[in-house]
Amino acid sequence: MNSATPPRELISFGSFQCDVCSGELRKNGLKVRLADQPFRLLAILLERPGEVVARQELREKLWTTDTYVDFDDSLNTAVNKLRTALGDDPENPRFVETIPRRGYRFLAPVEFTERRNGGLQAAAAQGDKASAGHRSVAIDQAPATPERRSSLKPALLFAGVAILLFALTAAWLLRAHSALSLDWNDSVLIADFENNTGDARFDQALDTAFTVSVEQARTFEVFSRFRLPDVLQRMGRPATERITANVGREICQRENIRGMILCSITRTGHEYALTAELIDPQTGATARSYTEQAHGEENILNALDSLSRKIRRSLGEPLYQIHLSDRPLPQVTTTSLAALKDYADGTALWHEGRFKEAQPLFHAAIAADPDFAMAYAALANADCSYINNAQALCRQEYERTLALSDRVTNRERMMIQAAYADDMNYPDRAATLYRAYLGVYPDDWRMLRNYAHLLRTHGREEEAIQQYEQILRVAPDDAGTYLEMATAYSTLHDFSNALHAYSQTFQIDPSRLNTGDTNREYGIALVDAGQSEKAEQLYSALLAKPETRENGLRSLAFLDLYYGHYASAEELFKEALALDEGGHQKFSAARVSYMLGEIAGGEGNSQKQIEELDAAMTSFPGIGPKVVYGALVGQAYARAGAVRKAEKILATITPLVDPYNTRQTKHLRLLQGEIALADGNPDKAMAAILPPVPTDDSSTKTVLTEFMAYANQRAGHLDAAIRWYEKLLADEPGLVAWEPEQRYLQARYFLAEDYLAAGNRRKASAAIAELLKLWANADANLPLRKEALALNARIGASVRPAA
Hints:
Layout: E1 10-13, E2 16-19, E3 24-27, E4 30-32, H1 36-47, E5 52-54, H2 55-62, H3 71-86, E6 96-99, E7 103-106, E8 110-116, E9 119-126, E10 129-130, H4 146-174, E11 187-190, E12 194-195, H5 205-214, E13 221-222, H6 228-234, H7 245-255, E14 259-268, E15 271-279, E16 286-295, H8 300-314, H9 319-325, H10 329-332, H11 337-351, H12 355-368, H13 373-384, H14 391-403, H15 410-423, H16 427-440, H17 445-456, H18 461-474, H19 479-491, H20 495-508, H21 516-528, H22 532-540, H23 546-562, H24 566-578, H25 586-602, H26 606-617, H27 626-639, H28 643-653, H29 662-678, H30 682-688, H31 698-715, H32 718-731, H33 741-757, H34 761-774, H35 783-797
Parallel strand pairs: 11-13, 11-14, 12-14
Antiparallel strand pairs: 1-2, 1-8, 2-3, 3-4, 5-7, 6-7, 8-9, 9-10, 14-15, 15-16
Helix pairs in contact: 1-3, 5-8, 5-11, 11-12, 12-13, 13-14, 13-15, 14-15, 15-16, 16-17, 17-18, 18-19, 19-20, 20-21, 21-22, 23-24, 24-25, 25-26, 26-27, 27-28, 27-29, 28-29, 29-30, 29-31, 30-31, 31-32, 31-33, 32-33, 33-34, 33-35, 34-35
């Protein structure tokens, strides 16, 4: 008798059944059309659920050696056809997951059924190995004789017992029984590991690893460690204080956290004992306690993994769900304790704002483990942040991270994909990925914040505010969320709600009032709400402390420019620049030089303006946002008459543009249009950036709108210029503390001039009156002020009766 394992013939997953023998795919019993090659691809993936099947292996199995095809294209086509048949989304797959540069993996639980002697025998499989989850007995269809009926009784009895045992096992696997009374949206706090070994490598590393493991759960949320600094400060404690049992209980009671996990590690020779306790924060009682032994440090992470599974089970997660979402901790972090320590310490430093200290640790972690995926993700986050603005490096590090997707949990993989799309400024794709993630983990505070920020910065402020309200249901005392809401309301010009949100922010966390961007943006909201004196007092308060003086000087200078006090603004900007003589803040120094150029241009000194722009460009090699910033400086060069310098910038930034990044491509075209306009070709200039709007980035939309208005003005297209200027001033009734603010002020003059040319004296008078009101005490020598006064006189003279 042949004892070889017979081939698996019927494979079920979700609502699908794949019959290997007949080559048919069915959904709920109905046949699904699928060509031969995609079907064979499906069969190969189904044979090894949960495993990564390499592209080269698929090539060898799907095509013979004498077949000559474009393999990559043909395989991609087969995968696309298979996904279409399954209704699978490649961005959020339920069945077929792409592992970049490696292969594919089948994600869903599957059930194999085998035919033997005309009957069927089934075995359940999930993950990377099939297991005999249940079996059904094959029954011969021949007529039953008395002897046969007698022989069937034991078999039927055995079958009944087997079914009962299977049902009990399934109930045990699926049953959720929590040691604490948790609701679906409750969270637990993981306190800091108590390290009794004397080995500093375990101080933060085990916290990080244990959190990664526990966060794979879907039935409860781990309280975000990113929220702890704010909570500790509200408690009157240092933001970096360790979360001990007593401190943890106080946090749980303040934040209504229903469970706390205390962990510790001790050492005796080469033996390590790891303990995890599940604590009821209200009573302090231990609901469950578990201990795992590890012989040698190389087994510590495996012991920690075991503790995590037991704690997850005690918190009500069914064993079956744990099995589905659990991936070995050494695999999804690192087997190197040195690498884990460097990564954990670097992460802690980064979130304390100690950026320069953090990044070398991420590099050290990668040096210790070149396949440490989350260390690459941390570097990508750093390089895409405003700290580095190194887009090219960021992209490389994200690609490396995603190529190591088998080295992260499914949760982390989804987070990284969304962050990658967000950081690369692919807003539609990022929004889809954020929604997919939040569909699985709806109360993840950090991802809710990131999604809301994406919406806010891409012209979807009202949706963002709805998300912020959702976050406040999760975290009602989150000052940062109120601050983001304030910015969203300001963008919508709802200054009443904006100032209320700012008030809530400072009530929860008064220290935010004196931080750089927050202080300036709050002042801008005050100006827009007609409270400029309060804004000036706010900015002036920063001058008293050395660490905030530079920021206060720049804010006051922007405010002076807005009201036409150019001489005063110049002195403030120069003092701010002198405070950074070492050039440590290259972008800030470049912005100040740019604004000094704006002052020179506004005073009619184009040569000095060009010299200041040259000074701004000395910082260009060390600046991250080269495309956007370069386009902005290039525009200023072109309008100052230095067209060749603008062309040089254009040549520099063109190779740096990501063609899928709308913001970068729009700014590139904007500079192309500005150069064409300076060369005397306004129609070509406007064609270069068509369609100019809409864009989902509000700042880009503003500069595009101003350019279209200015270009039509230069071309003599009166009606079009009026429409664009009206749109600009309607979308941005105030424009303070931003490089193009002087163009906004100039727009009022041009609009008034166009209204008068069109014969609408009333509108012309109202437009010029707004500018003269703002510049009531402006420097007398400013050309724009002189022109505005002359235009106002012409408007008045145009309606005087003839003599």
